[in-house]
Amino acid sequence: MKDACNYPGIGVSATGTTTPGVRLPIEALMSSSKYKLQRDLFLQGFAAVQNKDVFNRNSLFERQEIDSGFTFKDVDPTSFFAVASIHGIPYEPYDFLDTDKLGPDNWIPGSSQYGGYCHHGDILFPTWHRPYVMLLEKLIYDEAAEIVKKYPEKLKADYSKALEELRFPYWDWGSPVTLEKGVPSVFWDETVEVEAPDGKTSITNPLRSYVLPRDLGTLQLVGNSASPTKKPYIPDSNTPYTPKGYATVRNPDTNYVSNQDSTSLAVVTSCNTTYRPSLYQLFNYVKSWRQFSNHGDKKYVAIVDGKEVKPLTESYGHYTSIEVIHDGVHGDVGGSGGHMANSDIAAFDPIFFLHHCNVDRLIAIWQAINPNAWLDEADLKGSGPLDKKVINEGTFTQKPGVPLTEDTPLAPFRKSETEFWTSKGVRDVVALGYTYCELKDHIDPSKDPKSCDRYKSEELKKYIVDLYRPNVHVQNHWQLTATVKKNAAGGPYLLRVFIDIDHADEHTSTHSPNFAGQISIFARSKDTQCANCKAHPDAVVHGSVDLTNCMQALNIDLNRNSLQANQIKFVAIGTNNKKRLIWEDLVIKADLCKYDESDVDHKKWSKTHVSSVYPPGN
Q: Any idea where the Tyrosinase copper-binding domain is (predicted)?
């Protein structure tokens, strides 16, 4: 029997300490002398994981031959390729054991069997991605532990201490630093310097990219050259599969090389127009796990006497979730043809995990502010059978149509060889061996230290709301909320929002003062093998764009109902090919709302529905 990967994440079980390690912002880990030893271990450990051979070369060949006779059962679960492939392509099982109870055809690519491990667009989005980051964290930790053994005796004690404190870092794409500087330079440097056991050296930067050791598909050749080794290449218009030997890319140019300036510009723009305003609203107004956890569901309207009525959830939270904010970062970092913008291949870009570590941080903070919000809420228990939030359409290890609960196995992430993690098991990050600075700084010593309600919730809420508040001097914030069809474009797309510019199209600059922001739809291609995604062609996404800064730039009065619905202009474009789409085929409804936040007491803030933008006149 092949041994299980069996990586429960680092913490008490791995380090032998009862004190949770602090996950650091990547800027601090990479720049502060205080964390130099941790930095040395993290970079060397991550590089070692990436450099691992995809296959266990000593394993026996089995059916369904790939890559010169090796099969998915031969893939080394501790390799970065294996970990990244959990999120999509090549749709093969992760850490498969002979004892796993599976049908003989479940793992055949292209079969009618349910496939993938996808938990996007449902209530397990936050908890499923938590052990995903833990898995890579533990793999890096284990590699770092081996490296520590090789240091000279005079350094070994210090590096052993650094190892105990080592945790995976996060990139806060909504921070004031990102707003000012864009994507940190550490994600672009070709090499990084480390103090290795045999002295100072430069190594390939594991945060910049990952070179594919196996084909994920082909690229289209540009020009008349027939040589598959020559550039330029362009990605396929639906999903930019990548051939063996090519590195992951972000906002690639015509030579299929990452464009640093374009990526940072896209991130800075959205940090201003989308990330920060949306996080501000998320922490301010959303109190239900159902609303917080994911970007949309199938049952988005209620039917009364045969007629559609207003959305089931009338609070702003229906249009702001941790997932929809997360979607935008994927679109901006990946860009047209980039890996991060395409769900099936996003995890092969190393920045994926620092992005999701930040998502986990935001989830943990929201949990601390709302300790009683969880998967057992009454509105989840009473949901109908068509509600995508609570009914999954099947994964490699779960049959379709089974309700999602806190006890649903978060496959393929194992707590032991015979047990997968569950949402209940990963609810408390401190119990998993890590924490974040904001949580550590807001512990209430008068409360039970083992309780989920151990924090100074109101104080923490004020801190995080002030951190992400887009404009502290504005009393009224304006929002456009929209419900759109997730899969109607056959892949990822962008819904851009402009004000007072009738001629806006796919060529109109997002740096125009008329550009208010965009909703990024992180959809898989129509050819995806993800069963959960294919089962919901009519899934929707609830998103929003903050209009306040754009209105100020255009000198539109924020304190009166001066903005009219006919001043809003939509432009929809495909993320990969940048071709214009018919936005009316994608948008179900859109509304204009104003938030009065003039009172010192947050509880007295109010929302006003100003008008319906689409359909007009509703």
A: 119-137, 349-360
Q: Which two tokens stand for residue 227?
A: 């040589």
Round the average pLDDT of the chain to a whole number and report it: 81
Six-digit token string for 560: 């009166």
Which of 136, 158, 155, 172 is CA-nearest to residue 45? Answer: 136
Q: What is the pTM of this model?
A: 0.86
- The pLDDT of residue 532: 64
Cis peptide before 252 (omega within 30 of 0): no
Axis-axis angle for helices 351-369, 457-468 (nearest 10): 140
Q: What b/e string do you get for 284-315 counting C-beta neighbours within 10 Å, with b at 16 or more?
A: bbbebbbbbbbbbbbbbeeeeeeeeeebebee
The half-sphere exposure of 176 on its side-chain side, counting CA atoms within 13 A, is 8
No. of helices (H) and no. of strands (E), the chain: 17, 18
If you search the block for the tokens 């009219």, which residue do you land on? 564
Token duo for residue 195: 């103090």
For the CA atoms of 68, 73, 74, 78, the dihedral, rounded to the nearest 10 degrees, stands at 140
Q: Is the separation of the CB atoms in 321 and 121 below 8 Å?
A: no
CA distance 23 to 247: 27
Tokens of 360: 């986990």
Q: What is the pLDDT of residues 522-564, one digit of tens each?
A: 777 766 666 666 666 777 888 889 899 899 999 999 888 889 9
Spell out the alpha helix ranges (H) of 65-175: 80-85, 125-148, 153-165
At residue 585, the 3 state secondary structure works out as: helix
- Position 234 scores a pLDDT of 56
Rg (CA), the chain: 24
Which residues, including other chains, have CB under 8 Å from residue 219's CB and lie 6 or more apart? 233, 234, 235, 236, 240, 241, 242, 243, 246, 256
Contacts of 438 (CB under 8 A, 6+ apart): 361, 365, 460, 463, 464
Q: Work out the number of other CB atoms within 10 angstroms of the CB of residue 260.
A: 15
How far is C-alpha 246 from the geometric centre of its chain's CA atoms? 23
pLDDT at 302 (0 to 100): 40
Q: Which of 307, 310, 335, 369 is nearest to 518 (CA)?
A: 335
Residues facing 202 on adjacent strands: 193
Residue 17's CB: how many other CB atoms inside 10 A?
Answer: 12
Instruction: At 307, list the tokens.
Output: 């007629």
Helix/strand/coil for 112: coil
Identify the weakest region by mean pLDDT among 171-180, 477-486, 498-507. 477-486
Question: What CA dihedral angle connects 273, 174, 457 and 14, to 10 degrees?
Answer: 150
pLDDT digits (tens, 9 = 90+) for 563-602: 999 999 999 998 877 789 999 999 998 999 888 877 776 6
Q: How many CB atoms lie within 10 A of CB 76?
A: 17
Q: What is the pLDDT of residue 63?
A: 37
CA 507 to chain CA centroid, nearest Å: 28
Beta strand 409-416 with 540-546 is unpaired
Q: 27-31, 66-70, 161-165, 362-366: lowest mean pLDDT where?
A: 66-70
Give the span between the Cα atoms of 429 and 436, in whole angstroms: 9
Q: Name, in order, each residue with C-beta under 8 angstroms of 536's C-beta and a sequence gap of 6 or more.
A: 121, 298, 388, 393, 486, 487
- The whole-angstrom separation of Cα 275 and Cα 267 is 9
Helix axes 36-50, 125-148, angle to 10 degrees: 100
Q: Which amino acid is at 593?
A: C
Please state, in angstroms and rounded to a whole number, the distance separating the CA atoms of residues 312 and 299.
8
How deeply is 408 buried, as exposed, middle or buried, from its count of CB atoms within 10 A (0-12, 13-18, 19+)? Answer: buried
